[in-house]
Amino acid sequence: MQLQITGNTTCPRRSSCSSQFKARLFRLPGRMASTLLCFGLAAAGFAGYWLDRPYTHVLASMAVSLSALSTKQKANIANAARRLDGVVLKPGQEFSFNGIVGPRTSSRGWLAAPSYVGNDSPATLGGGICLLSSAIYQDALRAGLQVTERVPHLRTIKSIAAGLDATVWYGMTDLRFRNTLDCPLQLVTTYTPNKVTVELRGNTQNRNWHPARITRLERRISPALLRVEVYSQQVTQERLVTRDIYAIPTTGEKHR
User: Fold this and answer.
1) Cβ 148 vs Cβ 163: under 8 Å
2) Tens digit of each residue's pLDDT (9 = 90 or more) over 135-176
3) Are 9 and 52 in contact (CB under 8 A)?
């Protein structure tokens, strides 16, 4: 592994500190002095590296249970999580779920698994990954980023709260958002067979930044339809994010 060391590695009192250190080194045998000098520089370099890392703070985090999903759905989520893990967004750069995850084809490791299409749950390549895109969407909302594209499901599903979902279908619907913060952001995904966790990390210098508080307001407008409004409150300002209409599955329809 190649480690790039950055940051200031000099002593604040450079002249006095340097002369005292050299004087002590000259009293030691050559090999020992050389070893100590290298050790000191390396230690200072590592200290600078840890202080200057740009992704030390978790700005938003979302963990989703996978216990109700099928083995193939979990495999697809693991595939997508690997492709997304470590993605970096510079300030002003736009994130595209489909652009990073790519086409869902069998040659790229995607499996046919249950997905949500209208009122049905057919097996499609990559089925299940909307759970991951929805988790990323919620992180983007909490971080206060600008969402440029997001499409809800047509019906409610148990695994994702209505209004906080983001369906993705390659070539048709995508999840996109722009990094509107003053720092680079790193997307970190952690997958286990029981849970997937998504984090947005970065070191914003904006002291006025705070994670947004996301709230939902549901209203049943008919026996078969649900209206959901999602609001974001950051500091004291509250705004309407989305207003979606969902079909409510009837008894006997799949709703998971």
Assistant:
1) no
2) 999 999 999 999 999 999 999 988 899 999 999 999 999 999
3) no
Q: Which contacts qualify for 207-211: CB closer than 8 Å, 24 or more apart?
A: 208/235, 209/144, 209/181, 210/234, 210/235, 211/59, 211/60, 211/142, 211/143, 211/144
Beta-carbon-side half-sphere exposure of residue 119 (alpha carbons within 13 Å): 9
Helix (H, G, I), strand (E, B) or coil at 58: strand
- Return the closest-CA partner of residue 135 out of 186, 175, 182, 104: 175
Torsion of CA 38, 39, 43, 46, to 10 degrees: 60
> What residue spans define the domains of the chain?
14-52, 58-210
For residue 247, what is the DSSP state? E
The distance from CA 209 to its chain's CA centroid, rounded to whole angstroms, is: 18
In the chain the first and final C-alpha atoms are separated, in Å, by: 43
Among the listed residues 112, 87, 115, 117, the one whose alpha carbon sits nearest the alpha carbon of residue 99:
87
pLDDT tens-digit series, residues 191-250: 999 999 999 999 999 998 999 999 999 999 999 999 999 999 988 889 999 999 999 987
With a cut of 80, say whether residue 1 has pLDDT above it. Answer: no
Q: Is 194 exposed, middle or buried (0-12, 13-18, 19+ CB in 10 A)?
A: exposed
DSSP sequence for 189-237: EEEETTEEEEEEE-----TT--PPEEEEEEEEEETTEEEEEEEEEETTE
Question: Cβ of 51: how many Cβ atoms within 10 Å?
Answer: 11
For residue 49, pLDDT over 80 is answered with: no
CA-to-CA distance for 205 and 140, rounded, in angstroms? 18
CA dihedral 149, 155, 158, 159 (to 10 degrees): -30
